[in-house]
Structures
1.
Amino acid sequence: MRKFVLVFIAVIFTVSGFAQKSADIGIWGGSSSYLGDIKQVPPIQTFNLNIGAFFRYNFNARVAARAQFLAGSFAADGFVEDIPFEFKKNAQDVSVMVEINYLKYILSERKTPFTPYILAGLGVMYFPYKFEPAIAATINPDYPLKEGVEESVIAASIPFGFGIKASIGERLGIGVEYQMRKLLNDKFDNLDDPLSFETINSAGVAETIKYTDFSHNNDWPGYLGMFLTFKINLDPKACPAYDRKHW
């Protein structure tokens, strides 16, 4: 494993050393989506504004690393076990992802004007959590937690998505993308494992039966939006000649 990591790092530095050193900064805007414990949520909901920014370092025309921050609102209105339920909250998201282009793409180069791409990585989300026992009892009378909870949560996430981006000038680019988050936490919709219950096992000891854990839960927030990027040349001596060659 250690040898594999060392080889991977060596390859990354080798590739980035031979590639044009460039980076992009971007601003992002769009709306949010939700999949989770709440069912029958309309696919087209009220627009929930989310905005953000990102920095993308291009190792080469195929691979880039991207650090991103998004902030805005989420909402859903539907049913849990045939009981009406809704939530609305603000959330902040920080992620670091690898972005892989299907086609060779360098922002502003005429030979590579656009490309579809995929991206995935690791991240965290910060959001408020409010548990109301009366509502939980309506959904599940045997729910084990009987006291209210109100707290702020920092949840680890696995971000992933896809999109398409294109150049619109020497240094400007645009794109549209959809991202989702696999949260390693089930509190995003204020329903922490709503079908869990407490029972007495064969040894006569109280036992909580759970349906979600750190890696298995039902909360999948998403983002749909557009972005505008600006190219930064990190190797000013090489870039003018490079640009004249390809333009």
2.
Amino acid sequence: MREAIKSKVDKLVGLNLRYIGRASNLFWLGFGEKILVTRRRKTEEVAEYALHIQCSWRIAKGNKIIVGSRDFYSPRTDLENENEHFEWDVQGNNRFDERIKSIIEDINQHTIVERFESDEVGGLKSFLSQGYLLEVFPDTSEDDEYSKFWRLFNRKEDSPHFVVTGNGIENE
């Protein structure tokens, strides 16, 4: 699995990290040149490559975790006294939404993918310029049809998605 992952993700080496964000608890990143795509009769500008992560992950810089997957489920700092009313899925409500702002400001300064490392169970380390490290680490033994850890796809080529699952690699 390690070599198959590395051969796919190495296509991102040298590309710019264009943007990062979330949809519910799916963490997404866009890499490469910006292109125009039409979806649902609407044209939008997106990055050529998309990495969607639905397992545990973290972004560190130096010896500090900047943001991680569990931050989705914690309230932003000024909501801590209102935990009984906390809705993690509302955009802007959680710690991820708060913490990711510092990275977004930094990536606008041309953050580049420097290299990748992968492991035999679908884990991935992405070393980025400016000292950032994105670590993706599947942390469940589930191996059913719903255990999709992360996927990489090229919007420009509209090729099948490279999907890392609890059962190995799939192309969708």
3.
Amino acid sequence: MPYSHNQLERNGVMVDNYLAVLLFSFTTMITPGPNNIMIMSSGLNYGVRKSMPHYLGICLGFPAMVVAVGLGFDALFQEFPFLHEVIKVAGVLYLLYLAYHVAMAPVSNIGVVRRNPLTFLQAAVFQWVNPKAWIMATGAVAAYTTIDSDMFLQVVYITFAFFLATFPCIAIWLFLGTHLKKLLRNETHQRLFNVTMAILLVLSVIPVIIELASDYLA
């Protein structure tokens, strides 16, 4: 049965708040981060068709992560904070590993690919070691939920907002990579692109490295 406007207000799901969630989700999804950089690199090196499993893994994997965080993982990490630290460290190491492979991607022939793109499962699981994904998920749940309202309903509408934002925002980066393919026929230019993407990937985790270092040195 559809909720009335009064019911939605009582559950904290007001129109202005929902628009704020939508704005937050679109803004965070379109700005550069590990997912965007990796899908753009995949679009360049593999094209749209071969990158679709990677694309769908992000688009479905991240909203699934938001649901899990909103409905219990956040409480779990508050109870056992070391688990979050373990994931952070694993995420940083994995992103540095990916940055190395992006930088070393073959450039002898842009039409010949020697490595396989990420699979759907790999891209979906990657969300759990993506520092930006954690910041977005926990930040949205913390900012746009209230303890005196229906938590399940609030998490659902936050997840739906990210679901709406993820598909077009990630697609923009994917198609940007495929269009860059036309401009990067030169091997030197392609190598420069790959190295630049690797550097951006490393820079995206610098704040997390600084946070971890400050925690351990405190």
4.
Amino acid sequence: MIGFIILVVIVLVIVFWAVGIYNRLVSFRNRFKNAFAQIDVQLKRRYDLIPNLVETAKGYMKHERETLEAVIAARNQAVSANAKVGGNATDAAAVQQMAASEGALSASLGKLFALSEAYPDLKANQNMMQLTEELTGTENKIGFSRQAYNDSVMEYNTAIEQFPGSIFANMLAFKPAELLQATEAPEERKAVKVTF
């Protein structure tokens, strides 16, 4: 009888241990999904601000139509890539495509802002100033959200790779999540030489 009780206790300990590991993996997965959803919220805000920014700039930048169209095209591509990910950060190709399209959108916005410097009336426009300020704040929030997402993904990926979590992760189809990485070309990462 004592042997049976010891066996039941051992089985219960193993079951509770396995349930604890499973719950820990689910918790980490939900954290990185929530972190990705926070990025998504900020990206949607960014996508909503861009058409207003372009419309405001159109009246002043009549000769810069190509740049304005490039911003809208980059925005639409980023919206499409973001929808493709659909909150599933375990689809590495979709996450990389989203990061690349977001990089292209940032580059086209950078060109728009650089060109707007040549139009003093546009820079002084109250609506443009407000939109630029909101977009800058949103960009900062996106950066912080990406950092939080990457931290959550690292924690999750570590949990599914470490023993004994890796055993349960493989059995229960927990897939690694993709980190968001910078998409610049290697030459853009080099330090800029400044000479006087």
